[in-house]
Amino acid sequence: xxVVAGGVEVAxxxxxxxxxxxxxxxxxxxxxxxxxxxxxxxxxxxxxxVGRRERRRRVQADAAAVQRLFQxxxxxxxxxxxxxxxxxVHMLRAMLDRMKPxxxxxSPDLKFFRNRDAAQGTPTITHTTIYxxxxxxxxxxxxxxxxxxxxxxxxxxxxxxxxxxxxxxIKSYDWVDPDSDSSSVSSSSSSxxxxxxxxxxxxxxxxxxxxxxxxxxxxxxxxHRFTAITPCAIIxxxxxxxxxxxxxDCTYYTDIPYTLHSTADNPSDLNNVEQDQGRLAWLKEIxxxxxxxxxxxxxxGPPISDK
Length: 307
What we know:
Layout: E1 2-3, E2 9-11, H1 15-37, H2 46-76, H3 86-97, H4 111-114, E3 125-132, E4 137-143, E5 148-152, E6 158-165, E7 167-175, E8 195-207, E9 213-215, E10 223-228, E11 232-239, E12 252-257, H5 271-274, E13 280-286, E14 294-296
Parallel strand pairs: 2-14, 3-14
Antiparallel strand pairs: 1-2, 3-4, 4-11, 5-10, 6-9, 6-11, 7-8, 7-10, 8-13, 12-13
């Protein structure tokens, strides 16, 4: 066992999600071998040559897409304390919008994505890292049906999320006052159970292919929860990535309806949000849920070069 940021224990790969990654890796390898050796499945002359060229172009296109994405991330993310410029966000978002499952070695025909049966017990979430450096990380998350990534934050981070396959429900919040929590704490909260006021940003279902979502350090739904409706694959670009050493650990929350707690001692402090109570909630910091199970597998899609 080993530990990643957020305190999530990472086990050896197991289950259908790991099998999907392995199958994708094998498929990508077969395409690379076919392109490199010129395998002719049907024999013959000119027809085989055309087939080789088509396979080679397909492999090169898959590799080129993830390589271009990597190069764009390297240009866009400049390290902790920085946020990509609007034109850079637009460029990276457009690239992710065009990404297909095949660009990272996946296919909707893999058994993991065709399985619609709910797993027994708590589903295990699988993740694989395409690339990671101090400035950014590129990861893919595999969620079986009914799997949940609990409500959590992304401190000081800009995150691009692209749903590649499947359907999921996303619920996200931002703090009402991101700079200070003194005027947005429930007066009924004890010192060891602070409730901080947040506003709802997203609460909806999404099905691939759909637009890439972007969250920022204080806007865009920095705290979100993923719930898989069907088996899903999501590519996440995090800049900078989680780091316990640099005080960017993952914090988990539970959301509580706004009306269940009174506001601060001076209600006038929140007059600007009182009229939108339906989109407000109190967030309570919690320990990492014990039922959260995640495992890590090796990335087997088209390789990237950081030269």
